[in-house]
Amino acid sequence: MSQSSQEKIPRTKVAVLGTLAEFHREPIPFDLPALVRLVSDLNPDLLCLDITPEQWQAGDFSDLPPEYRDALLPLAHQTDIVVVPVAGEHSPAEPTAPGWRGQVIALLRGWLAAIQRTAPGPAAVNQGWRHDLANLLYHLIALLAGEPAEHHTAWQTHQEHLIQRVLETARRDPGRRILVVVNVRHCHHIRPALRKYPEVEVVQYSEL
């Protein structure tokens, strides 16, 4: 076996940064420039976003959450950061339910908004109790909604596509530093899924 074939392919560092994009219309103590500064300091080689290739090619970002539309996409345009759209389709609709279950869902979504409002910066949504509580609340909302099989499958398919596209990106550009920015509900699925692959090194965003 030649020396070149024995050389190890470098592992690709991947960090997953969670957001609560839907609540950026709420009054919050930090603004989008804080997210821009965070990602600018990390300066990843590739920035994977939960948008479709069609949205990216069309350049129509009006329906995207403000984290993407007003912060990360303009940042990428001004720097050498390469955007990689990793969504297969638009995100499925948010879970809903009639009657008392709908009222509880509204209450839990209010708690999610409170997590966003009380976070001192985007980093706080990605570690500690806020990160774990947000994931738990999204899980409870899905349970209360009693999601029909097709809706549950739609969310599962969406997450699996995100994971597969990030993995394909890591394999296509080994050794690059990849930052994935998605809704916090996806973080606890994407990270463990990517850890199964030896060519990927999942790290905290601060270690990217």
* Largest sheet properties: 5 strands, parallel
Measured by DSSP, the beta-strand proportion falls in 5-15%
Helix count from the secondary structure assignment: 8
What is the overall shape? globular
| H/E element order | HEHEHHEHHHEHE
Tell me the helix content: 40-55%
Radius of gyration, CA atoms, in whole angstroms: 18 Å
- Poorly predicted runs of 5 or more residues: 1-6, 26-30
The number of distinct β-strands equals 5
The order of strands across the largest sheet is 3-2-4-1-5
Key phrases:
5-stranded parallel β-sheet, 51% helix, alpha/beta, 8 helices
Would you write up a description of this structure?
The protein is of the alpha/beta class and 208 residues long. It has one domain. It is 51% helix and 12% strand. It is built from eight helices and five strands. A five-stranded parallel β-sheet has the order 3-2-4-1-5, sandwiched between helices.
